[in-house]
Amino acid sequence: AYGLLSLIIALFIFNMFEVRFIQDDAYTSMRYVKNFLEGKGLVFNEGERVEGYTNFLWIVILSGIGFLNHNLNIALTLENTAQYLSIISSIGVLILTYILSKRINQESESESSLARIIYELKNLLPVFLLAFSTPMVYWGVSAMETNLFVSLVLLSIIFYINGDKDKPNLTFVTVSFLNSLLRPEGLIFFALIIFHKILFNYLEREKQKAKSKMFDKITRKEISLFLFPLIICLIFRLVYYGYPLPNTFYAKTEFTFQFLQRGINYFYDFARSYLLYGFVLILPIVLFKNKITIKNITLLFGLNISWTVIVILIGGDVLPIHRFFLPIMPIIMILFVKAVVEIIEKIISQKKIILQPVLIFIFVLISLLGYLNYGKQKNEMMNKRYYEAGLVKKMKIYAEWVEDQSKIMRKSKKLTVALSTIGAFSYFSDAKVIDLVGLTNEYIAHNPKEVYGINDELP
What we know:
The structure is a single chain. By secondary structure, this protein is mainly α. The protein has helices spanning 2-19, 24-37, 56-71, 78-104, 113-131, 134-140, 146-162, 170-182, 185-207, 217-240, 247-252, 257-274, 279-282, 294-313, 329-347, 352-409, 423-428, 442-446, and strands spanning 416-419, 432-435. Strands 1-2 form a two-stranded parallel sheet. Strand 1 (416-419), helix 17 and strand 2 form a beta-alpha-beta unit. The longest helix is centred in the C-terminal third of the chain and has 58 residues, at 352-409. It starts with a helix and ends in a 13-residue tail after the last helix.
């Protein structure tokens, strides 16, 4: 099993290096890190306190490594550091998917050798499907925090499932807090898991005819331990930046019919590409009949459906290759494979002698379909990759030109440049940058105005 897992990881690394690029948005975070390390503060433009990022922990990690690199004279650029961290996090996603799958598909000690092989293949199949999926490959090498967030989501689920219900689950709370620092959506995953815990505690007490309480003492303590450091971070945000939410929230979020329609289209494209038009997402309903595993199944299925609804409501993502659905893709694959196995076992339960060969055949078939689908989706991924790599290269050239003009003009003040793709340009230039979309600009975020042509796709 470990040999096959290592092989899948090796193939995944090969897929990532075939795509290798840095997303323009990653450079926005790097600009914050660069300014912070240079003593200018946690700012995008010197002297302007605007929280134009949503990945505080990622910036802290990059700043820490950047500080060590500088003091230890390690020849590792900020770009390479971010990309290597992104790749390592992606490998972590595959390993944690395997661990979670093993936890959901509990093995019987009395099983035969062939049955144990099938059990391991059942746990490895979701890992294979992820390794050959364009969202995992594309964002895994993008130098962004996306797959670290997915890793922490999976880790929080594993710690929650393995937790002792008689005492506060400190590992689950700690990982959930770190995930909320990494991305604001970490708070949503914590809330969904806690809601699941409260609901099942209530149902168990009702079944035992005990005095039911929605919040027991342990759960209240877990929520308090989670919220206390988060409130400290909120106070820092209010004091340093002046707003309770990141500036990007005010620039991007809008609860209108247009956003809902965009969210539906975003989900439809994902469902068409990877869920057989939603069949893969809905099939695990068959697992609800098993009362032994119902608690874990409802947790994972509930996370999938809740997160899907949230992504639709917020209008999906402006960036390509289904980034917003990555946090639940491992869970979708685990439940899908488990549901397929359960259906096959029920269909041929009377003919156990052919069950194992049929399961192996089904595993091979699903793997082949996953591989072929990756090849089908790969062209779109590579087109987006070429577009993004070209954009970064172009913006780097523009940044160098602006720096040259600044030297020629010998101005005491920095040049100011306004544009809508700010990442690479801002990182490679010392110019003051006005983000026309408003992500790093306080005034534009709170006073939006339609700019003609800003949404047009460049050739």
